User: Which sequence fits this backbone?
C-alpha cells in the first residue's frame, strides 16, 4: 500500500488539516526549549558551557552489562508434547540457558558506539534506538505515507497520557470499545475527557455501531461535541481479547490512536487439543521466514493511513520486559513535534539504563534476530493459552457455537462451559443435556488474557440477589479459595451496570506456569459449581 | 527540630487544610485503579489471574550487572596541587579504577533480594529503593513532622510537571525567582499557570519582596488570584547559582515546592587561589564524619516544615547519572497519594533497569558509602568551580566588592572583571584604574554553573544598538569563536527585557575538563575584549 504513496509524502497543509486536531494544551506548549541555542547546539568542536550536565567522570558506573538470551532461545514450532514444559524446564531448571553478553562502557572508542557518557540530554532518546524503532515501524507496519516519524516514550501508559492532552480538550469525548483498558480511561478522567462506548463484536469495535453514533450525534443531548478521536486496541484488546481484522480496520480508519502492545503476539484461533495433532504444526507457530511472519499478522492501522491520522503506540513491555517503561510513537510529523515538546517538560527521555540495555540487545540480535525472538514468543503464549483452555475442557464440559448476531461475540466461535456429569457409586447424576439454558459460563479463546462471562441467570437466587451482587459474591469466593480474577466491572469505561454487562471476569494467564494454571482452573471449577448449585 | 514534633504526626484534618491546595485535576483523579482488587492483591499463596503481566520466563535478560566505582573512589580532601587533574588522570588514563561488581539476576533465591522478575507493576517502585530514599530523606533532611512520605518519580522535571497539575489550577500563578530554570516554567505554560517573578538577592528569592507581593496582591489588576505556591530552587539555583540560608528559608516557608537537585553539592564560598594555601584544606571538603557533613549543608525546607507544606523533589541525576530519570518526592501523605495516582496514569514507575542498577549500587555502598561518595563529589565540583574562576582571574583583572543593596547580588561578594593592562614593546597601555564604570563583566562564584553579566553600557555603540542587540551579537561571536554560553534571556520566567535583566549569560562548567575550561576562558577573554573595544 505504501509503495504507491511513497512519492507523495504526507504534508499537513496539502492533506486534511490536522492542526485543528491539536488540543489547546498542545498548541500552548513552547516551540522549543533550546530557542536560539539550536543554531549551535551539538556543533562538533564547540566547547559548550550552555548545558549544565554533570561530568561523566563522576558517574559511578564504569560499564553496565547483561547476559541476554539468544534470539533463537525458544522454538518457533510446537514440539511433539504440545506444551512449553520442556522449554520451561530448560530455562528454569537443569539445562543451561544459551546467552550472550552485551556490555555498554562508560566511554566508547568511536562516538557512534553505545556508551554511558553521552546518554543524556536527548529527549528523542538514543540515536541507535531511534534507528531501530524506525526500521521496525517501517518494515513491520509499512505505513501508508512516507514521512511518518517515530519518537520514544516511557511506555504505552505514558504515551497515551501525552496523546490525550495533545489531541483532546476538556469536555470532549473519545470513542472506545464497550469493554476496554481501564488505565487508559483513568488517564482521561481528570481532564474531563469522557469515554464514549461503542458496541463490540468478535472483532472488537463495530464499524456499523461507530457510524450510527457519529451520524446520529446530538451534541446538545450528549453534552459534548461529536468525538474526533478513537482509542483502539485492535489486537487482543484488554479485557475481551478481540482482534480487529483488515476490512473492519479500513472502515474504522479515522483519527485513531492505536494502542497495540500485543501486535506481534497474535495467537491465531484456538484449536481443541484433540484436533491439534491433526493440524500438525500449530497455526500460531507461523512461517519461518520473517517477511511471511509479518504478512501472517493482522496489519496495523498505519498500513491504511495515507493521511497521517493514526498515532500508533508501541511498547517493549510485552516483548522485552514490562518494567522497562520504554516504547515509541509512530505518527505524522505535526503530532510528533507536539508530543516531543510534551516529553521535554515531563519524562524528558526514557531511562538511559533501559534504553542502553534494550538497544544493546537489539543490536546484538539484529532485526532478523528480534523478529525470530518475537515469533517464538508468540508461540510460547499461544501454547499457554491452549493449555489453559485445555484445562477448562478437562474441568468442564465445553461446547462450541457461533456467537449470537448482535452480541459482543458475533463473528467468533464461543465456548460454553457446563458442569460435567458427576459419577457417584451408584451411577451418573446431573446428566443435563448441555443447552443455552444451563450453561455455567461462556468465553472466546483470546490473545493473552480472556474475558469470561458467568451466566448468573442460572443461579437459584438470581431473581432475589441480582447479577451485580452475585458477581461480587462469586469473585470473593474464588479469591478466598485461592485464585484472583480481575473483576469485569473494572473494564467498563463508563461503569455502566446492565444485565448484559454483568457477570464478567478478566482472566490473565500470561504470567502463570502450567501447574498453576491447572490448579487455578480446578479451584475455579469447584467453586463455580458449588456456587451455582451445579454439584 | 523534628524531635519535639515526633509525637504529633501530621494530620491534614488537625493541621492546616491542605486539601484545598489540590487542583481540580488532582481531585478528579481516580481513587485507586485496583478498586476492589486491593483486598486480595499480593496476598501470599494466591494464584493471580488478575494482572496480565508477561511471564518473566520470556524476559531476554538472564541478569544485568555493572562495574561500579567504590564509594571512596574520589578524595574528600583537597590534594596539594589543588586541582582534580591527578584524579582525572587516574580515572581516564593510566591507573586502574577501583570498582566492584553488582549483579541483579532474573530470579533471586530469597524473594526480598533484588531480581528482574518482580520489577513490574509497582508504581511505588522497588521496595528496596523506597527504603533507601526514605532513610535518606529521614537522616539528611530531618523533616519537621513525622509521617511524611517518599514516592519515586522519573526525574525532577517529571516530578515537577506532576506537582503542577496536582496543586495548580489553570489561570493561577506560581511565585518564582526572577531568574529561574526554564523547563520548570515550560511545564506550567500549556496549563496557563503563570510565573510570578519575585526579586532576588545573593540568597535567591527575597522574603521581603515576597511579602510585599502577597500583601499588596490585587487579583483584579493582576488577572489572577493570589498565588498559593512557591517554586524554589534553594541550592545553586539555575541560572544564578544562589543558595538560600536558614533564616531566609524560615521566612519563606509556605506551600512551597522545593526543587533541589544540588543539595549535596553545596560548594561553599570561593576563595581566590592565592589565599587557598593559607586556608589549608578547602572549606568545601568538609568534615569527614557523615553527620557533621550533613550539618555543614544548608538544611532543606523540610526541616522547618511542621505543617506538611513542602513538596521536595530529589533526583539521582546529579549524583549518579543524569539520564537515569529517577528521583523522589518527600511530602505529606495527602499530596503523596494524589501524586501516586498521577504516576499510575502516566509514567507508572521509573524504569526497572535504572531502579535495579541504582539500588544495587546504593545497597553495595550502604548509606555511609553514599554519603562518602556525595562528599567527594562536592569536592570535585568545588575544585572545578575554583579552577574556572582561577582561569578568569588569569585572563582578566578581577576585583571583589559586596553586591549593591537592592540588587540581585545584595549579600554576596561580587567579582568584577576588567581588561588586564596589556604590555607592548614600549611599555604598558590600557592602564585604566578598575572602576565600576569600566568593568567588562560581573559574577558571583556559584554552585555548579554561574550567571555572568556583561556590562554592555560600556560598549561604544550602546546608545545606538541597545543591550538586547549587543547581548545577542556577543553571544554569536563567542559561539563562532568556539564556545557556547547559555543565553540569559532563556532564564527569565516572563521573558521580560529590561536594562537590568539584559546582558546575562549562563556558564556551566560542570561537564568540562580543566584544559577545556582554560581554553574556553581564553576564547571568551579574547572575544569579549575585542567586542567591547577593550583591546
Assistant:
Amino acid at each position: 500500500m505504501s509503495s504507491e504513496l511513497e512519492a507523495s509524502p504526507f504534508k499537513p497543509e496539502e492533506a486534511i488539516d490536522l492542526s485543528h486536531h491539536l488540543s489547546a494544551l498542545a498548541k500552548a506548549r513552547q516551540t522549543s526549549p533550546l530557542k536560539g541555542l539550536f543554531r549551535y547546539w551539538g556543533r562538533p568542536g564547540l566547547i559548550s558551557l550552555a548545558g549544565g550536565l554533570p561530568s561523566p567522570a563522576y558517574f559511578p558506573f564504569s560499564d553496565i552489562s547483561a547476559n541476554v538470551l539468544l534470539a533463537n532461545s525458544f522454538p518457533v514450532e510446537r514440539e511433539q508434547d504440545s506444551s512449553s514444559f520442556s522449554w520451561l524446564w530448560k530455562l528454569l531448571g537443569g539445562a543451561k540457558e544459551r546467552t550472550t553478553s552485551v556490555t555498554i562502557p562508560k566511554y566508547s572508542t568511536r562516538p557512534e558506539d553505545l556508551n554511558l557518557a553521552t546518554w543524556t540530554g536527548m529527549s528523542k532518546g538514543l540515536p541507535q534506538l531511534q534507528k531501530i524503532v524506525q526500521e521496525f515501524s517501517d518494515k513491520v507496519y509499512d505505513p501508508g505515507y512516507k514521512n511518518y516519524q517515530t519518537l520514544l516514550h516511557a511506555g504505552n501508559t505514558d504515551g497515551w497520557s501525552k496523546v490525550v492532552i495533545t489531541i483532546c480538550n476538556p469536555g470532549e469525548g473519545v470513542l472506545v470499545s464497550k469493554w476496554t483498558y481501564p488505565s487508559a480511561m483513568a488517564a482521561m478522567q481528570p481532564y474531563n475527557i469522557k469515554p464514549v462506548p461503542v458496541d463490540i463484536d468478535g472483532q472488537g469495535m463495530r464499524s456499523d455501531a461507530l457510524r450510527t453514533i457519529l451520524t446520529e450525534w446530538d451534541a446538545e443531548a450528549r453534552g459534548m461535541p461529536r468525538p474526533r478521536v478513537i482509542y483502539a486496541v485492535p489486537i487482543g484488546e484488554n479485557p475481551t481479547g478481540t482482534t480487529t481484522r483488515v476490512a473492519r480496520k479500513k472502515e474504522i480508519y479515522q483519527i485513531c490512536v492505536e494502542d497495540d502492545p500485543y501486535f506481534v503476539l497474535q495467537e491465531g484461533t484456538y484449536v481443541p487439543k484433540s484436533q491439534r495433532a491433526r493440524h500438525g504444526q500449530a497455526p500460531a507457530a507461523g512461517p519461518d521466514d520473517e517477511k511471511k511472519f509479518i504478512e501472517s499478522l493482522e496489519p496495523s492501522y498505519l498500513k491504511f493511513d495515507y493521511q497521517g491520522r493514526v498515532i500508533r503506540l508501541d511498547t517493549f513491555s510485552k516483548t522485552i520486559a514490562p518494567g522497562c517503561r520504554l516504547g515509541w510513537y509512530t505518527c505524522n510529523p505535526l503530532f510528533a513535534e507536539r508530543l516531543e515538546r510534551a516529553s521535554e517538560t515531563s519524562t524528558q527521555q526514557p531511562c538511559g539504563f533501559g534504553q542502553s540495555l534494550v538497544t544493546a540487545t537489539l543490536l546484538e540480535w539484529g532485526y532478523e534476530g528480534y523478529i525470530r525472538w518475537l515469533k517464538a514468543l508468540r508461540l510460547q503464549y499461544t501454547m499457554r493459552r491452549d493449555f489453559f483452555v485445555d484445562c477448562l475442557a478437562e474441568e468442564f464440559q465445553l461446547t462450541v457455537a457461533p456467537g449470537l448476531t448482535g452480541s459482543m461475540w458475533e463473528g467468533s466461535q464461543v465456548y460454553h462451559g457446563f458442569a460435567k456429569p458427576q459419577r457417584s457409586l451408584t451411577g451418573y447424576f446431573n446428566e443435563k443435556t448441555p443447552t443455552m439454558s444451563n450453561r455455567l459460563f461462556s468465553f472466546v479463546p483470546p490473545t493473552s488474557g480472556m474475558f469470561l462471562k458467568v451466566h448468573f441467570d442460572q443461579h437459584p437466587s438470581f431473581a432475589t440477589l441480582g447479577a451485580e451482587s452475585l458477581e461480587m459474591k462469586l469473585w470473593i469466593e474464588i479469591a478466598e479459595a485461592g485464585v484472583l480474577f480481575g473483576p469485569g466491572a473494572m473494564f467498563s469505561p463508563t461503569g455502566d451496570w446492565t444485565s448484559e454487562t454483568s457477570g464478567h471476569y478478566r482472566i490473565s494467564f500470561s504470567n502463570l506456569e502450567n501447574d498453576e494454571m491447572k490448579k487455578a482452573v480446578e479451584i475455579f471449577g469447584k467453586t463455580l459449581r458449588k456456587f451455582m448449585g451445579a454439584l
Remarks:
- The CA atoms of residues 474 and 531 of chain A lie 7 Å apart.
